[in-house]
What does this fold into?
Amino acid sequence: AQKITQTQPGMFVQEKEAVTLDCTYDTSDPSYGLFWYKQPSSGEMIFLIYQGSYDQQNATEGRYSLNFQKARKSANLVISASHLGDSAMYFCAMREGRDDKIIFGKGTRLHILP
Amino acid sequence: DAGVTQSPTHLIKTRGQQVTLRCSPKSGHDTVSWYQQALGQGPQFIFQYYEEEERQRGNFPDRFSGHQFPNYSSELNVNALLLGDSALYLCASSLVRIREAFFGQGTRLTVV
It folds into this structure.
């Protein structure tokens, strides 16, 4: 079974609109962390935001927020007021318990339209 | 403060050859992980090094090996290259058990 599912292969959004990228995860470990990364065409994986399974509040980092719904095993990324530079591939990822590896989803390609 | 740096950025090798990729972690980080990202896919974990030892390994054959040096930098070696080894190889550094992992820009390996 897939650990991380991103159901939107591609999205087109008008500049200045808010964007929600979907992510669901599957784990039986009560302790885990969820990540979102941005990958522009240059290839570098840029860390955006992190949510721990025991964190009480939804994580926020500037224009990025993580809508964490633990019971639904959902960790959607919300980008407020999108701009052209947000066009990139976005990956949801998870690290379980004491495991060291990060497991990535297949990604969502976001296109911001002028 | 330098982030994670990888070298080279691009590489073309022939089937059967061997390749070495290099990674310098972010300043202050002691743990280095390597990932392989095939075209159109998410990165797949290869292995992680901490205190110059391999801590954990993903589902990759023994042709993939690594090393970590006392200054925390790391190398990824791939022997007997196959066409299927063509991918972007990403290095990530972190502090052990600390949440964020920061990635380099990757080395794009093409096997012909």
